[in-house]
Amino acid sequence: MRRHFPVNFLLTIFFTLLGLAVMGYHPGLEDDGVYLTAIKRDLNPALYPHDANFFQLQLQATFFDKWVAWFVRSTGIPVAATEFLLQFAAIVLIIFSCWMIARRLFPEARAQWAGVAMVSAMFTLPVAGTALYLVDQHLHPRALATGFILLAVSRILANRKWQATAPLLLAFMIHPIMAAMGVSFCVFLSLAMMEPAPAWLRSRYRPAESSVAAAFVPLGWVFDPPTPAWREAVNMHTSLCLYRWAWYEWLGAWAPLILFWVLWHIARRRGERLLARFALAVFAFCLFQLAVAMIISAVPALVRLAPAQPMRYLQLVYFFMTLVGGCLLGKYLLKASVWRWAVFLVVINGGMLLAQRLEFSSSDHLELPGRTSDNQWLQAFAWVRQNTPTDAYFALDPEYLAAPEEDYHSFRAMAERSQLADNIKDTAVVALVPELGDAWERQVKAQEGWQHFQPADFERLKAEFGVDWVLVSYPQPAGLNCEWHNGSLSVCRIP
């Protein structure tokens, strides 16, 4: 390994850059409305005086935002540059860890790097019905936690189980729920790696209580009666309601079970002992976690556990499926053929790049720090950030994230101002923090009929909630005092 270190290092950086170029980079997107907003609040406590609960309460169990804020203070690197730097570091960690796993399972270098190439191209592969990607297009603690979990898996495969402890602890500090999934898999893998092999490896797998690890981190509110507002918020996310998944989403959940069961039998017949044990560990892990998820979804008394997303175990499994699938292609199909490799790389990367450009057609593919955006929503957010008071309280369309050309950028994260609750992202927060349900429901209901609001409606919001600014479509309703506009949006004071 040391002899080939320069080549391996360069290939790791190459596939990191390629993966980043294909997936794109979109700070402030979706979950960044919680994480990036919390980081900015940690750095400047004067921000978000009216709505901090809508992101802070969710992050009580993680050190992620506080650690990133500490990094910004210690280094003096701006938040935007820090976010990009850590996103790059997370991808490097994932790529390196995947290669470390591949080199244990497959002796051929071409198989190892074909697996890594497949993973780097498939970062934005949707994971069944979980509403997750393998890696998000912005800095997310799940990506860093996944990188550490994969590193821990590589250490167990290398028979260095004690070396898996530190990565798993780091993962737990960053993203406790993903870390719990990682610990669960590492338990199954450690049992599969035992010498002599346990009985369930030599014969048919039987779930054993001794192999059960926590699949989620229960919170104190788990057994409280669910409120109507909480149920409404949860029901808006089919990813949290397993038995509402479409047939193809169920297929995405069952496919790994079947594929790794087949791989286990084939590898065992061929004498590929480590690959067989790994495949069986994945199969057993899937079987156990799927059973847990189905029980949680079926038992009314456990309904409050649904927001922990027990099906998110599939994200880790999809990493393994993508990695092993690519390794098998490299070993048996690509081999040493330059033309086959060229077609392989063009097809997998080109297809995923096209999908990302179609999904975020109104935004730059790489929204790098310091670049001025042509997206009119981001232009409005930038004006708000630079020209309104820190304690400004905004109202905007509660469905704004799904508006044409908005591309799911968070107002809180990008404008750095408080806002009334929205009806898309904040529902996911309410699902995790039920105590916010009443406030969320009251604010969203007060904004019903937003498209037809007149000055009297905005004045009602000001009287009820203290809102003093609005972001509305241009041209704005008559009677509003607007200080800025572009071709789509106006920023206005409420009289």
3D structure, described in words:
With 495 residues, this protein is mainly α. The protein has two domains: 355 residues, no CATH class; 118 residues. It contains 20 helices and five strands. It has a five-stranded mixed beta sheet with strand order 2-1-3-5-4, covered by helices on one side. Helix 1 packs parallel to helix 6, helix 2 crosses helix 4 and helix 12 crosses helix 14. The chain is globular.
Give the SSE map.
Layout: H1 5-23, H2 32-43, H3 53-56, H4 64-75, H5 79-105, H6 109-121, H7 141-157, H8 165-174, H9 176-192, H10 199-202, H11 228-235, H12 247-269, H13 273-298, H14 313-334, H15 338-359, H16 376-387, E1 393-396, H17 411-415, E2 418-419, H18 425-432, H19 437-446, H20 455-465, E3 469-473, E4 481-485, E5 489-493
Parallel strand pairs: 1-2, 1-3
Antiparallel strand pairs: 3-5, 4-5
Helix pairs in contact: 1-5, 1-6, 1-15, 2-4, 5-6, 5-7, 6-14, 7-8, 7-9, 8-9, 9-13, 11-18, 11-19, 12-13, 12-14
